[in-house]
Amino acid sequence: MLRACHERIAVQCTTLEKLAAHLPSHGADTQAQQAARNIMRYFDLAAPHHHADEEQDLFPVLLGISQRQCSPVGERIASLLDEHRSMEASWAQLRTVLADIAEGKTRPLEPVRVADFAGAYRAHIALEESQIFPFAEACLDRQQLARLSAAMVARRTIGTITPQ
């Protein structure tokens, strides 16, 4: 599930870059408005779930294993957590511009800010997929993976209200 999320993050980063290139010539036309809404929907809803999957479920388990094995993965996880906070702050800044674009107001998306945001996510994904996920696959048994998967699915389940 996490790798699939990474693919969707990459798609949204590419859409953001295309939107930044589209705006100078076309302004906040219908296509730009829809792209802005799609990007906001993803980074407002799905990205926080993805971060929670890692921070609340995957990383704590891996940190425990890393400490027992004296693995450097724990240090990498600490760095990834810092990156989450940084990317969330960058998103908050980009989101204000995207909200205006979604409403039809022409505002420029600063190319440097867009490149920094997309680049940070791509580097973050590359580290997770090259170092963290292989460590998890090597260390976690089927029961642990099933618990992680169930927690991720539960986080995304809409309307699961317990009757009173």
From TrEMBL:
<dbReference type="InterPro" id="IPR012312">
    <property type="entry name" value="Hemerythrin-like"/>
</dbReference>
<feature type="domain" description="Hemerythrin-like">
    <location>
        <begin position="2"/>
        <end position="136"/>
    </location>
</feature>
<dbReference type="Pfam" id="PF01814">
    <property type="entry name" value="Hemerythrin"/>
</dbReference>
<protein>
    <submittedName>
        <fullName>Hemerythrin domain-containing protein</fullName>
    </submittedName>
</protein>
